[in-house]
Amino acid sequence: MSVPAASPQPPLPSTLPPPTNRTWREQAITLAAQLRTLAEWIRLSDPPANDPAGQGSAKAALDDAIARHLNEAIVVAEKKSPAIQTSFNGAVVERVLSQLDAAQVALLLRAPLGYVQSQLPGIQAHARHHLSRGDPHRTAVEEVVTAAAAAPLEESGRMTLVAAFRASCLESREEFSRVRSFRNVLIMGALVLTVLASALAIAGWIRPEELRLCFEPSEGTACPTGNRPRPWDVFFIESFGLIAAAVSGAASLRHVRGTSTPYGLPLALAILKLPAGALTAVLGLQLMRGGFVPGLSDLDNPAQIVAWAITFGAAQQLFTGLVDRQAQNVLDDVGGKAASTPEPSGQ
Predict the structure, then answer these.
(1) CB 76 within 8 A of CB 95
(2) Separation of alpha carbons 285 and 309, rounded Å
(3) Per-residue pLDDT reduced to its tens digit, 181-194
């Protein structure tokens, strides 16, 4: 089989383009470049013009499709777009990942069967990683892998692998979407709590007598910043609650693993804890003033008030701890932690 001579490569530019603003963009651009190199190698090794089976037009169409998918993925990944909008709706991430997945599917259709058979371990791992144990596509992949161990891969096996790979790619992108959706809920929750905490601080500044955080022990009056209510008392208490929430939240995040998704779920968790701590500090002191905690309704000095504000601020972990566990479940679902359980022996 004659192989056409490769066209001379253009010289490398003297300066490389600047990196993009996100890690996932760089990973997508690198993967697209690798797939483009692989597609070119397949095209030169098995050119459509030399196909004796008369399938040259089909191979040429697949070559064009691969180039089109990769070009679109690179263009979108390199394009500057509003960071907040891109991260919130996930459209750019979905466009890039779906185009890369489509290019890989086209490569499996275009490549010789020998190459596809060499990719069986990766396709099997991908299916196990993202598809549940009872999924028909995952079962079909296992059957094709078992059959390919005894005989060369056939065209029907290729189509089975392509269908399973498409299904696992779709599930992978849906896992990313679930992470993004939960992250957006956390961000909106943090925004609402921040607005409430700010409104409470402003109300305390305007009406310090109505929102006073003072206690009346047997000897005079004890307020957060002295012996009388001041406009900045609520803000003062919220500040200590926020600091306490930051410290306790940092300690709790040690149990939350990082994520390889484009969406910063652990960061959203940390942000949620800050306004929650500010609010619980103020609300906790108000409960004490109302006698909700027997025996602790009369604090003697500002130091005790601040100490209890810190305690209530750190206590936000009692509520956000439930969110931490749900976030961990969402992260565990990425990559199918339950679905990637090793297959039983003999399968």
Answers:
(1) yes
(2) 7
(3) 888 888 999 999 99
